[in-house]
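Async update (no meeting this week)

Hi team, since we skipped the sync, here's where things stand on the single-chain job. The sequence we agreed to prioritize is pasted below, unchanged from the tracker. I ran it this morning and attached the output directly underneath so nobody has to dig for it. Comments welcome in thread, and please keep replies under the output.
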Amino acid sequence: MDTNDTNQAAANQPDPHKPRKWPRRVAIGVVVTGAVIGGTLWYLGRETTLQMIAQKVASSTGGKLTLTGVSGSLYGKMHIERLVWRTDEQLVIANKIDLNWSPAQIVSRGILVDTLHAANLRVETLKESTEPSTMPVKLAPPFTVSIDDARLNRATFVSKGAETHIDNIRLRLEGNKARWQVADAAAVTPWGDVAAAGTIGAQRPFKIDASASLSQSQAKAGASAAQLRMKVGGDLEATLLDATGQAGRAVGDAHFELSPYAPIPLRSLRINGRNVDPGFFNPALPTADLTFAVAGKLDDKRGISGSVNITNDGPEGTIDQQRLPLRLMRGQLGGSLDALQVSDVLLDFGGAGRFTGTGGVQRGKDEEGVGTARFTLHTDRFDLKQVHGSMKTTAIRGDIQVTNAGKTQTLRANLADQGLALAALATLENNVVTLREGRLSAGSSRVDVAGSMNLLKEKEFKASASASRFNPVAFGDYPQADINATVNVAGALAPAWRVDAGFDIRRSRLFDQALTGKGKLHADAKRISGIDADLALGQNTVAINGAFGGSGDKLQWKLDGRQLSAVRKDLYGAVLASGVATGTMAAPRTTFDLNANGLGWVAAQRKSANGALRASGEAWLAGTEGARFVEAKVKGTAQGFNPAAFGSPLAGKINGSFDASGRSGADWRGAVDLRVQDSTLSNSPLWGHARLTADRRHVSNADVDLHVGANVVAAKGSFGLGTDQLSWRIDAPQLAALGPDYAGVLRGQGTLSGTMDTPSLTAVLEGQNLRLLGTHNIRSLRASANLGAGRGARDALSSDIQLLDYVNGETRVASASLKTEGTRGAHLLRAAAVGEAFDANLEVRGGWAGDTWSGTLAALQNRGRYALALQAPVPLRISGAPGSGVMGLTKPERIAFNGAVIKLAQGSITVDSLTKNGPRWNSRGHADNVPLTYLAQFSPAIRENARGDLTLGAQWALDLRTATATGGAPALDGNVHVFREKGDMIAGGDSPVPLGLRQFDARADVQGGALRVRVLLDGARTGSANLDATAQLLQGRLDRDSPLRMTAKADMASIAWLASFAGQPGLELDGALRLALTGAGTIGTPRLDGNVSGDKLAVRWAEQGVRLQNGELRASLAGDELQLQRLTFQGRQGTASAQGFLRFSSGLAAANLKVTADKLEVLSRPDRTVVVSGNAELLRDATQFTLEGNVRADRALIEFAPQGRPTMSDDVIVLGRGGAKPAPSNKQAEMPLSINLRADLGDEFRLRGLGIDATLAGNVRVRKVGAAAPRINGAIRAVDGEYAAYGQKLSIERAVMTFSGAYDNPSLDILAVRKRPEGEQLTQTNVEAGVQVRGTAQSPDARLVSTPNVPDSEKLSWLVLGHGMEGTSGNEKDVLAAAAGALLGGKGGTGGFQQKLASSLGVDELGLKQANGTATGLESTVVTVGKRISSRAYLSFEQGATTASSLVRLRYKLNPKITLQFQTGTNTALDVLYSWAFD
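Output:
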């Protein structure tokens, strides 16, 4: 055997026990790798590693990024306390950043951030970047990024010192290589709440699809929140933005086309809006109704086109009337960016005038800035009074021009009126504004202003102004003055404002008093120093000097007002006051010493206002921001103080002293100690004292004891704490001691204890024959009350109030009572009242606990004229403010009253709900089967003109938010609906007309401050009519300035039913009427468009003899004008027509009506027939009416009623007809009437009555100018006729009245004779006598005439008796005496000689009469003098004309039937006279 081979073979055999090495190596590699990875992961997960990485990242930015307070781990939650990024242009600061992400999913899902929260972010722009923005190449991230919950509590953006805060930012974000998406984004901005979502592509052109909304954060109660919705589309090369918005009535839409990265991003725009009211957004702004349209476009060739158009359909008026004077604004934009043209510019201010303008911009290719620009506004007439009511009426004309040349912008203004001019020149260059010239002048008045201001750095400024002979009256409705003064100011606005100012007033006048003064000061935000100012007005002076606001500063002030009438004319007296002001701007305080003598403002008390007032004390402002209040301490004395001098109804002279302190605000408190001695009030002695301390919940240490004459008011004790008790007493046996407005006896006493929440009260009060405040009269008052305390709900509660014969004007209550019984927790209240028209009673059951009373309205009934009854008890709950206790029930915060059914005599009213919740009221309900006759009880007009079996139904739902809820004016929403259920109405009193109603429906809806009224009427007689009108409420109410929109239509086959509403008994109308109208404008000045037509119209008024028929009406309305195209009528004979216009803007400011009559019988009744022809024109402008025309009477018959008919005295009141309405005290002055009218009586004008039967002829011209008396020129004569007098018919020989000026005093030339039979020869025994009147109507000269001439006694005898004095009998002599008395005394008017003499002597009767007896002639004539000495007594004296006989007679009327008559003198007698009346 070969040993070598054997060994070799053995060597080639494997060793089963030899270990393998590669697994170990692999394992070692894995372990090492795992250790490295684990170590790396461990290292990266350490907080120190995170801090190191943050530091490296910050260092790599070159100091731009700073990170502090870094903690957490790269594998999960991280926190950065503060992050700051600063560049030359921007500073970004973020605080308290928390991030939580999942790095394990970075491979599968990318970077997934669960939460990213930050407390606040501040972005401040340090300077504007000059580098243009460029569109990114791409927006795609290298891997998917997702933020599931990103939140930022507040973001603050600062630019040029202005800060904008956006709060509560929330969003979700996801980005990948295709797009970025934002979802559920929301934020709270100063403009409202924002919500947004959208996507943007990650690759060019970056497609956009996004939407957003902006909603008002806090809408007014009951109002819809304002909304703005936006939609963004397109891409970053051409972005499209559409928006719609709504706020109140205002709505709008907009469209924008943008190229965000182009040199000019805006390519086109279109903005439209309507119903925009600035006053809706801010109550301080004027009211308007704006519609606007703005459009603009920039094309690819840099061409520009655009327009602006704004119209105001709101109420016209001035700024001080809270209206916007601007009515229209428009303009056109054209040209290119290199040559821009502005044209067709119009600013129309309505009645104030208008401005027109043009302009343009020229910019060279390499020119920087705006280039060369010029824009000019021009006006030919502008009235400042139509812009602000206090300004003077002007007709300003001139130009306002703005130009740019290089880097200098210039404003020039040259406006002038007669005596009024404004000139201004201002420039802006290198950020410095300079007012080189500013001059306002009017007549000799002149104000000059100059100054400058740097817009950069500290914004330094300086200005000076001077006034020379400045009189505000020259500019408007301002006080008269003559001011000569200079004012100089200088200072800066940054970093904190400061100013130095001084003024000097030289030889000036104000309120017709001398005015002088000068002063200076230095002021900043914390302190005012160097104050030294003196001012004198008349004899009044003010002096201030020192410093205020800093530590140790003192500002001394002094007022010497020894001539208060120089400040206000109705003031009188003198005041001397001084003090020292200290403290800071936030907490000022001052001491004061006051001496006043003879103060007051009631002119009637000026002579008796000689009192003196002395006071001293201190006042200061305390509290924190938002809760400031004033505290004060004062003490002093009063001597001869007269409260009536300050408007009190009680005059007096009060002497005393006082010491008081207190504070204002919700937590008010005060203390007073008043002592009165040796004083008078209403001429009655006054003395006593009053001491107390009080706050919102307590009254303590009260001690009151005041005496006025025999009357006493006293109180002593405390109230508010559980153990307190306040006793009070009233003992007023002579209320008349307080003056003529008071009378009667009033006595009472009681105690008040407990707390404000649970008061306890005992009281007894009794009064008789009371008169209070001059209008309230009570015959008897008895009252008692007892409210326990200490036992909670078991406290006793009882009261009994009885009142008899209460009268206040027309309100009369025969008796009234109020009774309560039970406990605080369970009590019963009964109330009742009886009067002429009512017999009402009320019953309430319930109890109160804390701030709330709850129970039921158990009964409510009236058995009087307005009969009603509550069908069943209704729950009632009333709550005061928390903590207000029982007193809070007087001003409840919450009320609940639901489900009440009130039964009427016929029909019912159901109150489904009536609630109050804080400042908000709500009510719903309905009425069923309410008859018209029931409603007529409330309205005399309905009661007198309407009746029938018509029944009405109604529904309402109202929501009222008071001014407290809205923060402005009250706001009402809801509706009221009234409709016919069944039956018909009969209109008219004298000539009733059934209307044949088929439908009546009236509805008023209020929503969003707009009131919409709709009325539908349909009936067999009324025809059909409908009205639909909408008006905007202003300040929560319907005002004459409320904007109006309306449509109205009517088709009436007969207008006969309208006659009953004319208020003229016996008037009848007929004919068909149709109208169709649309309206706009305001309630006070509507603009109406449409037409009115009528056919077969008729007017009949038998009582007045009016009978017009076959009438035709054609009229149209256009804006504020009614065009009367044709109105014709026919009478019994003849025709009449009218045409013209009425302009009813601003209360019928203009009219022109032309009326033509052709033999028209205007009056047609047996005693009054008038047929006229002619024409007349009625004009009206803003100042007067004018009537011109020519009228001829073709035929006329006028008969007067016989004299002597019985008439009722003016003081007779007929029950049921109502008394005369008092004339309003604020009646406006009537519009002046000017007349120029010619009247011709024609050939057939017959006058009968008053003893006259004659045919009149002649013509006159009547003229009247303004308020002056009419003047008449012309003559009227009697052609033939007779005059009946003394039982005879006198023939009118001649009768001429000649007018030559005054209408009431024509010249008279009248001759009437008693004709003798024809053919008789006139002799001394056959006399033709008559009466001749000459002179004037106010001073006529009447004398007897005869042919032949005979003595006056003979003339009178021949005139009255028909024969001479010879053979005259006794009875005939009596007739002659009466006739002579009539000739001597006269009748009517102001009377003749007798009546005038009696009036001058102060007697009621003075005359001659025949005494009783057989004597005749002069011996039986007596002179009578009489005087009524009361409504029942009449005293008279009779003296014989030729004898010594005399009588004194007294007649006294006991009642309407029995009269006593006593006489003494020649005969003494006592008579009892009894009268019978047969009616």
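Quick observations from my side:
Residues 1-11, 1215-1228, 1386-1391, 1414-1419 have pLDDT under 50 and may be disordered.
The CA atoms of residues 438 and 1261 lie 59 Å apart.
Reply here if anything looks off.
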